[in-house]
Amino acid sequence: MTDLLRPSRALLPLLFLLLACVPFAAAAAQQPFWTSFFARILIYAIAASALNLALGYGGLVSFGHALFLGVGAYAVALPAFHGIGSGWVHLLFCLAGGAAVALVIGAISLRTSGMAFIMITLAFAQMGYFLLVSLKFYGGDDGLPVAAPSRFGALDLGSAPVLYGVAWAVLLVLTWWMSRLRAAPFGMALRAARQNARRVDAMGLQSRRLQLAAFTLSGTACALAGALLANLNAFVSPSSMSWSVSGELIVMVVLGGIGTVAGPVMGALVFLGLEEGLKGVTEHWMALFGPLIVLMAMFGRRGIVGWIEALEQSRWPARAGAGRGRR
Amino acid sequence: MASLQTTDLVKHFGGLTVTDRVCLDIRPGELHAVIGPNGAGKTTLINQLSGELRSSGGAVRFDGQDVTGWAVHRRARAGLLRSYQITSVFEEFTVLENAALAARAARGHAWRFWRPLLADPTARAAAEEALRATGLEAHAGTPAGELAYGQRRQLELAMALAAQPRFLLLDEPMAGMSVQESAEVTRLLQGLKRRYTILLVEHDMDAVFALADRISVLVYGRLMFTGSPEEIREHPEVRAVYLGEELD
Amino acid sequence: MMFRALWKAACGAALAAPLIAAQAANIGLVAPLSGPQAIVGQDQVDGFMLAVEQLGGKLGGQSTNVFKEDDQLRPEVGQQAVRKLIDKDKVDAIVGLSFSNVLMGSLPRIAESGVVAIATNAGPSPIAGAQCKPSVFSMAWQNDGAAEAMGKFVQDKGVKRVYLMAPNYQAGKDMLAGFKRFYKGEVVDEVYTQVNQLDYSAEIAQLQAARPDAVFVFYPGGMGINFVKQMSQSGLTGKLPLYSVFTVDGTTLPSLRDAAVGTLSGGMYDAALDTPENRRFVAAFEAKYKRTPSLYAATGYDAANLLDIALRKAGGDAKKLAAAVKASAAELKSVRGPFRFGKNNMPVQDYYAFETMRDGGKVATRVVGTPLKAHVDAYAAQCPLN
Amino acid sequence: MNLTLLLAQLLNGLQYGVLLFLLAAGLTLVFGIMSFVNLAHGSLYMVGAYAAALAYGAGGSFTLAMLTAMAAALAVGLILETTVVSRLYRRDHLDHVLATFGLVMFFNEAVRIVWGPQPLFVQVPESLVGTVDLLGFGYPLYRFAIIVAGLVVAIGSYLLIHKTRVGMLIRAGAQNPQMVAALGIPIGLLNALLFGVGAMLAGVAGAMAGPVLSVQSGMGDAVLITTLVVIVIGGIGSVTGAFYAALIVGVVDTMGRVYLPLLLRQVADRSVADAAGPALASMSVYLLMALVLALRPQGLFPAHRT
Predict the structure, then answer these.
(1) How far apart are CA C88 and CA C67, in angstroms?
(2) Nearest CB to A188; choose among B91, B111, B117
(3) Which of A150, C88, D141, D153 is the most buried (most CB within 10 A)?
(4) What residue numbers bound the domain in which B192 lies?
């Protein structure tokens, strides 16, 4: 079984190939709905991959990553509200805003660990939520329409197929970078810090500084997803920052396979796909979806990708997989 | 190869004095052993030297520089590296990755986001060299979690060596090892003697007397006596402590 | 490339919408069916389906497919539901559209597609004013309407000092602004509380200390139940008249019961309205669902009947449906009494004042006044439509 | 007049704090001693509220309703423990978050299927209707009942944990479960019992909150976040910590909501104060927690002094 054809290796390329066909298939079937439906999945996959950098590689259980989705979304909506439609300005606000907020919150939150870290990140997200709800000038709880979608020269993110292409490209680049980063010095040091931060310090690196950098990168990438979401919905609202969205992002990462490269993409696809599928079946879809998540937590050892790798290991035992860390 | 001196090093835990005005002088290239009964404060002393514990008093000079206030990572980058009594290797990484990360951490920096760690020639070379020195090159690709206990102790050592240290603090490298494994590590340390300055904390007396240029005896946090292995063997008080007569 | 072509053909078929007979009427129904306000969504769906059932499952003579979508009171979920209804199910009209935040979220896609939208749960000021759209209607109210009615009612009663309270979000601010548009007396204080707040004892103590002549509040759904319960337990309800909008209504009265006795609420509908159409509607609703219909059930019911008239008028031509809906309002015998669309497609209707009182063992409401008759909202002037 | 208002607000803060403690006590035991992240604790609170509401509605006395609530919450707690929770003890906090996130979804929807979206009607028990005159200020009698009940539970749980053999076992189990098991004590049964007691406390809180708050599906989620804040401020695993922290959060939240807007009005002009006041008030609890965590990550009253 040559390495390339191994399911876990071939999973991502196949996935991206299929996702690339969706807009064409949707156009062929006069079903534009599927383009925006899958665009939303791509965007949440970007957010989940961003969270995976902090949560999977770094072991930082952030329960407030929806805050960065909100920051990214409002980084598009606010300039647009004041008449600025240039995508570059939106991108600048989004990346700068996401990085700044992530840096500040990360610096404070990393003073704690374990349960306290989970709670302090949740606290910052709730603060952001209440702040936006009370900003009457920008629509507060009722949200704010995006007056001008981000335009990069001829590329107008207002149209669904264009947005789909951009989201697909961003996810591809991010996922590819994640696979490289995982084995790069920064990724290895970060994953080492998750296993034993004291040892990493004793070797000559500063584990807290690595974790802060990872948290900031993760927040910025998540803000990027928020900006794309604002363009998809042409509307932003504080409820996209509620704690249940942070919870859903965590579920997607863990469901897909935490700490793996393909995990977040698979997790977003299965989570949102299953949600839509079950909605079609019954109005009380949550009564089915809840237990499913419980079962996955109890039996899915390391998510879908972990399950595929375990299956593959039992079917075609590979030579000692170099550099294939478990979690 | 670096030297290390401590002047009146003290460490209190609340009212308890664990390190009591210790004065050590370790010359470049020397293998200096520190022995003493359990609870003598050996590991505390090493933690003070490596920077993981902040000393309550006194000074630590490394290669002539006062490093008392330095943080752990700063001392490590200066070449003052340690191994741990309780093995703490990265179980999810392979043996080679553990060593390469150690090499990279001491010499280079981790702010590389694209090229793989193992593609860094200097780090990889230092790692492979350290694995050869500790006899682990056959297990380069095995995840550290799957190693036997003895092999993990060897990896612990390999990670210290991979960082090309200028001073090695070894905290009971032979702990929990069989006689045959200890003999192997002793031969290994014999090979390192002239290349690094080493402070060895160990209970295995055969290894200590085979390796040490000089030996210091630590009892209840106080440095009782420093001398050549022969002087230590004949020294009445040292025998008393080890053979059980209580001190006055 | 062959693989891509094969793939396109295969999944093209799978994704195609189920081909439904062309002449059937497809209606989308978007409402919050889960989360704290689920009862509000459920009432609209039940009201709408009751009318469809009474019309033999046909609206405007065409067999009708109703696509129900749960927006979970989250704008993002509502947007996806609307996209699904417009792009995939190719609906002729969308009814419901939940609270203001979900409605505003779905507006861009609706306006762009030109599909007829009939809101049965909100009428935010932006779409009543400058952003009014020819194909977007509200069967319920313009958000400020009920509060304006209570403002006038309290003004007419000659109350000198009133204390205002609402949750700290857009609708809360709109409600208090609407009240002050008609109430000219002294406003003792204007207190905004946290959204979904549980415990109001602190605010009630503050209210008690301020000694106003009356208090006006807007606390929809669970917040209303918490507030009114805690008000009655503090013994204030007897001493201090409580005026409210969207707080004591068909959805909350069953779980408030005597805690709400003595309160006065304003609105465009209550089951107690004594018109022949309403008596028939309430009887049919109670028979089918074993509970009294709230104002949300009424708007759902009216929306279905309006569509019935409009679809017959438009004769299956989507482009004429919007104009047909506007015209049909005059022919609709609404359960709430007189009703027509203003130029901004907002309802022009009477607003009543209801009092909750003990009627034998049970608690019931009765009409105690009609402060605003055929009321045109304050934003109609800004709307360019005619 | 201002003094009595301050006193009333303090009482309100105390009452809200006691209600939070009823919830936090059970949660901090499960978190601290079994290190199990239980997001579904709010659902057990909801189960208690529904059981009490239904029992009371069916003509029972309030005490009967309270017992039904405790029994229902204990039963659901034990079922949860044996089927789901016990399999997750050795697993990572993330798997706990995932599993209990699913449970919350299930409970909210199940309650909606069985009892519908309509909030239930719960009456204040006749004996506790009316108000107590407090220097000319009417304070609801039922609120006093909540304070008293909360204090009784506080003392009861303190005695249970510190003065009884079972309490000793629970604390021993916290430090070293293997050793306790080695001594022949069925640690599985002990954990189940502990989780059950935690659930029962949540059930009591639900029953007490019924007449005051809206009993509806999803009522547990809002109160869950505040309870998590309380146990983190108090120090995870410390019941005493949870008690003090609950009172602090109760008072800070109440005072923040009332006096912050007033304070701001003196400083800033009216419109800014009206906008910033409520926002700051709703953020006050989270600001407090972020402050505590940044300065004392292990909480104000760390666990070792339970």
Answers:
(1) 11
(2) B117
(3) A150
(4) 1-79+166-248
